[in-house]
Design goal:
One of its GO terms (molecular function) is isomerase activity. This protein has 70 residues and is mostly helical. 76% of the residues lie in helices and 0% in strands.
């Protein structure tokens, strides 16, 4: 019962969290590269995927949902 309540509570926040992540990454990705601090290769790849819409808000929702369901 406690685990089910925890899942339900976490699931409730997934849409807002996914939206916030995308807004933040979108703002970072939109910055011109000279203004951007140096990110490691993995972070740069994520920002490129956000720019190309290969990674979307739904991607984060799916990942967060999958993690909560574990």
């Amino acid at each position: 019962l406690v685990k089910a309540d925890r899942k339900r509570n976490l699931n409730k926040y997934i849409p807002d969290v996914a939206r916030a992540i995308m807004e933040t990454l979108g703002e970072i990705a939109d910055e011109s590269p000279p203004k951007r601090p140096r990110y490691d290769k993995e972070d740069e790849e994520l920002l490129e995927k956000v720019n190309s819409e290969e990674v979307t808000e739904m991607t984060f929702r799916d990942c967060l949902t999958q993690h909560v369901e574990q």
